Structures are given as structure tokens and as C-alpha cells.
């Protein structure tokens, strides 16, 4: 690629062409390097994979969710790790297997099977499942008759979202554009009466994508056109299916809103007349903002979602990256926070998140609670009395939370912004005792990276590696302004925040450049890559999984549905000043000769969000520029997409590769392999 802003030609453009024999050979050679690395650290890899597999048993069965007269759940205890979706009648122990994903994948000869949604119809006689068998995120919906076990329908080339009609005789689906954008609301009658799709709504604007949801009351279907800065909601009254789809309120610049059905009115989640979201109410009919009333906004925290029940409205949000939940009593008009159900959780670090809740008339609301040191628990709160009880907690073999410590520290940037950092480590890794540290960042799309518990970090923590999350700008941890501060023409701030986090952790004695690892996934790869270009000296190693490291190439790719949808996040390549800004920080375009830390990059051949060639070209150019002999590895999955294989075993093997790489780089290979040693002394 050559451009007036960046006239240097792209010497690795051939890697974008799978018909070029050099491309396949390059990817195979790079995968061979990874195999050689694992062979050289086989003891470490086997130890880590063994520890992860032992933790697998923790999640072999999900807590059962009551829906009607059934308890629905899934388990992953099969040898191959594919999920099996099941149910049993309330009051019985007899299991009914609804869908065995491993069986489906095997029958179709696929190594990839990512499940989007699984939903029974209203009378529980059928089950529908959306599944992606290629990794391209073009789903097939399968419908199974649970009375005779036969698959009735197979509906290809749709999006993951779908909803049942109330009578169970049809499905509402989202049809895809050629580039993969959800653009059409479809209705598909099932059985003999099914004659193709009926198109109910089309979103022609390539800068918007449709989402689909049925209200918890089961009375309405909401179809939301989602753009980067505004939304528009259509709805269908499901008890009047012959009535046309209704537009609630036409899109307006920078106005975002979503609907839920709440008794005799709509709850409207919106940023009307403010930066962040709040909840308002409106009649169940097309209504302009002048008719939206009774704003609800918690005293502290940022609102991000809502859920309606017959007597209460539940409001989700967060504060500095930690999830919060509030309950609004519809009869009394009172709003109250759900209190932390566990003692001993570090102040401000407890994370609430919604669990599955099936019954609109339920008195008990389910939620999950954890922290960096507290294993996740499934809890219920009585919406009338506010009492809380524990429903289920995963038991982590050999885990004692008393061996670990979590804390929140703040890094200050040159422009005066304060960046929250969440930390967890084994005792003995506190400030003043420098140990290896793994710093994870994301910083895009207003997404919140919560400091919740993960047992799969234990192979790092138990070898003395601290784990940190840098809640950098571009995410939503501190509201819309936090997102705005790290997107579009502020995107460089995300990388500057990464550097500020690293410098703070080093200055305060938590880490040292010789043992600091930086990691990011997907859009987080842009911040990681830009920080690496600016300060390669700060890091011992970098991990970049499906990393968006060619921002310019991605946004100029007209075949991608995401390029048009995401201009508000990354910039408009048709605007010269914005394209120039992208060139100024895009990691791939700003690589230069010099010494780089050790790097592990991971790509996926069928990735439609971050094409395989992004990490491939990035690694190829680094290899041509670098001095020194630090490890440089690229693993490309040849049969999966952006979201992985959908298989727990494959996910754990990927984690084991990453942890083995990190531990080898920081000198924590404790199993006799040859490792690059890193200092654990205080930094000068």
C-alpha cells in the first residue's frame, strides 16, 4: 500500500493473497516455529496444560436456569470439550439432551462450532440453536422437535440473534448483507407452511447493523439499528403479528436509545440531554423524546443496561470498571443498589454482573458476583425483601483466596488523566518486591474490562507473576467521556495510557521492564502495538491475540462490514485529516528498525473482524526490522475465526501456549527447560 500520508510501499501486501504460494508457506513456517518453541519448553507446557485441565472440571456444568416447568443448563464434560445443552423437569433428575454440539460438528465435518443462541419455544416443545461452523460469523439456525428428536429446519446464512414467534410456528431472524452486516429482519414460518423468508424490515445504511430481542414480558419484539453514535428502534406487537413493524422514534444525531417493555409502558435507556445513559419511561406507542418522562439515574456509577420484570426494573452499570446493579420498584418509585453479598472483598473491586433470568414474574432476581480474588458466585436477591442468598459457587480445587491480594492503583498521564489499574498477585509480590507482571489492556468501543475472577490465571499467579488490568481510555470504565477520550481523533490516548500504566507500575515497584509483559486482544491490539512502537524498552514481552494492528488497512478494506460500521471508533478514511491521524499511530505503518521485546501473535484464518493477514504482516515486518534475538512467534489457527473454535479444550490449549510463552520469557520456567531469565530485583 502506498499513500500520500505514508508513501512507503507495503512490502508484505502479498500476505493478503491466499492464492500466492508464499502466503501458505509463510503461515506454515511460522506455525512450525511455535511447535519448536513448545518442544523446547515441553515440561513447562505440559505442567501448565495439566493445571488448566484440572480447572476444567470447575465449569463442566452451568447452574440450571428455571424456565417454566424446566431447568435448562449446559455442560462441557465430554472428552472433546464441546458444549452439550440439556434440561430436566423441575423436581426430577432425569436429563434430556437437547443439542450435542460436538455431534453436530462431527456430522458436518467441522473443527469449528461456535454457538450463538439456544432458545426453546414458549411451550418447550422445540429448541432452536444458531451455530457458526466456519468461523466467518455467518450462522445457521437449526430447529429440533423435542418430542421426536428430529431436526425440522436448517436455515443458513443468518446472524446469531433470533427469536421465536409466540405460537412456536416461526422464527424472527436477521439476514446478512454480502459483507456480513445484519441488515434485514426476516420471518421464517416453520413446517409445511414455510415458504422462504418474509422480509419485515431493511436497514439500507451500511453504517448501521440490526440487533434483535424479545421483551422479557414476551409481548414485544425490538429491532434496533445500531450505529456508532446513535440508534433507532422498531418494534412488533407479538400478539398482533399482522400489524406492520412500528418505528418508535427516528434516529437523531448522537441520540442513543434502547427499549424494554415494563408493565403498561416502555422503559427507554437513553443518553437524551446528557453524555451518559439513564432510564426513562414512555407510552407503548411511537413517542418523540418530549414524551419520555421520569428519569432514573443512580447517585453514583454509570448506567449501561436494564432488564424489566413485572414489579421491578433492574438497572446495570459500573463504576471505574466494576459492575454495579440497582433495582427500581415500579410501584413505590424507589431505586436501591444491590449490596455486595460477600465480606472481605477489597473496597471498590467487587464486580456485579447479570445472570440468566427466565421468568418475567419472578420475585427473585439472579446475579453474579466476584472479584479478582473471589471466585464467581451465583446469587439471588428477593426483589420485595431485598434479602440475598447464594445459589451456586464454583469450587476451585486447592484455591485459597487468603493467598492472594487485590488492589486498585491509579496511573497519571501527562495530560492529567487518572487511569485505574486493577491488580492481583500472590502475597510476596507487593510493591517493593519486584516480580514479573502481566498487564492486560483493551480500550475500545466503550467496552468495560471488569476485574472479575478467572481461575485460568492461577498458573501465572502461582508462579509469582502478578496480573494487572489497565482500564485505559477508549473503554467505558468511567462513562462516555472515557470512551470519547480514546476513540477517533483521540485514539492515540489509548496507547499513551498503556505507557502511563507501565511507567506507574515500574515506578511504584510492582514491575520492572525486564519482566513486564503487555497483552491485548482484537481492538486492544491497536493500543498494544502503538505503545510497543513508542516504548519497546518498557516491556520484556508482548502478547497480541487476533490484534487489530493495521488500522489503516482495516478501515480501507471495502469488503469488510466493519469498516463502514466503525468509522466513529477509528476514523473516516475518506476524510484526509482522519486518514492522516490513523497513519500517525497505526501499529503496522509505524514499525521501524530497532530492538523489540519477545512477541507472540495469534491470528485466525477465517477471522472476518481482524483478517489473518494483520498479525501475519505485522510479524513479518517486525522480523525484517528487529535487531537482537528475542522470540518472535506467530500462531495462525487454520480452521477458526475471531471468536475461537467454540471448544473448551482448544481454548485451554491456546491459554497454555500463551502462559508458557509468558513464563519462559520472564524466567519462571520451573520445570527444567532452558528459559530466558529475567531479573526479580528492584529496578534501579
TrEMBL record:
EC number: 3.4.14.-
Keyword Chaperone: no
EC supergroup of this enzyme: hydrolase
Molecular function per GO: aminopeptidase activity; serine-type endopeptidase activity
Any one GO BP annotation for this protein: proteolysis
The entry's keywords: Aminopeptidase, Hydrolase, Protease, Serine protease
UniProt-listed InterPro entries: AB_hydrolase_fold, Pept_S9A_N, Peptidase_S9_cat, Peptidase_S9A, Serine_Peptidase_S9A
Domain Peptidase S9 prolyl oligopeptidase catalytic: 451-667
Pfam family, one: Peptidase_S9_N
Recorded family membership: Belongs to the peptidase S9A family.
Name recorded for this polypeptide: Dipeptidyl aminopeptidase BI
